[in-house]
């Protein structure tokens, strides 16, 4: 894929070129949104909004990392969504059983491919990690997702959040310590190679 050529064609109005860029980055953009918001449907909406915004503002792209430019848009979209939620909190519509108790894992949420015990453990570990991520301040969460999940280097992450390199390093260091402390409560889910020192 010649990304630069696709971007130039998209800036000239070539929708097919832009769609190819979307296909190349849709997983990373959705992943970023999901890790910040923590809900699949809201993350999909944020990712879609980010691509629509990127298309409308494509002429403002001035070079550099296109991935960082896209992830900055989706990160800002997530911040907007989280601010909206704080202004208008909602009560989740969890399914209830006959006794009026909340159903922990309704049938429609179960992945049909799940089955083996190791898949269940991986799912529990993913939930534990997501739980710990959600416990972080959103600015810390964004940096962890960019560097540790998306695999960005510090410079690229700094471009995405629009902060100096030192801020990224500082937030990342503090976030990792908080994540480590949180994950200690889930030590039984961590494999021997993933266990934290002293366990």
Number of helical segments with 4 or more residues: 8
CATH superfamily grouping of the largest domain: RNA polymerase sigma factor, region 2, helix turn helix motif
Kindly report how far apart the N and C termini lie. Answer: 46 Å
- Total domain count: 2
- The helicity comes to 55-70%
Q: How would you state the average pLDDT, rounded? A: 83
Strand content: under 5%
SS elements, strand count = 0
Q: Over the alpha carbons, how many angstroms does the gyration radius reach? A: 19 Å
Structural overview:
By secondary structure, the chain is an all-alpha fold. It folds into 2 domains: 3-87, RNA polymerase sigma factor, region 2, helix turn helix motif (Rna Polymerase Sigma Factor, Chain: A, Orthogonal Bundle); 113-189, Orthogonal Bundle (Arc Repressor Mutant, subunit A), CATH 1.10.10.10. It is built from 8 helices and no strands. Helix 2 packs antiparallel against helix 3. The termini are far apart.
């Amino acid at each position: 894929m010649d990304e630069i050529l696709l971007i130039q064609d998209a800036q000239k109005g070539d929708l097919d070129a832009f769609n190819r860029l979307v296909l190349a980055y849709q997983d990373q953009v959705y992943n970023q949104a999901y890790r910040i918001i923590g809900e699949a449907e809201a993350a999909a909406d944020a990712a879609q909004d980010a691509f629509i915004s990127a298309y409308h503002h494509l002429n403002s792209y001035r070079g550099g990392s296109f991935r960082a430019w896209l992830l900055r848009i989706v990160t800002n979209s997530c911040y907007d969504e989280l601010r909206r939620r704080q202004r208008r909190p909602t009560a989740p519509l969890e399914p209830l059983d006959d006794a009026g108790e909340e159903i922990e894992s309704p049938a429609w949420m179960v992945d049909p491919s799940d089955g083996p015990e190791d898949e269940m453990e991986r799912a529990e570990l993913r939930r534990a990690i997501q739980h710990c991520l959600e416990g972080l301040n959103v600015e810390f969460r964004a940096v962890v997702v960019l560097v540790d999940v998306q695999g960005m280097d510090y410079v690229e992450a700094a471009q995405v959040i629009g902060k100096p390199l030192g801020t990224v390093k500082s937030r990342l260091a503090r976030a990792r310590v908080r994540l480590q402390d949180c994950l200690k409560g889930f030590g039984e889910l961590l494999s021997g190679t993933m266990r934290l020192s002293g366990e």
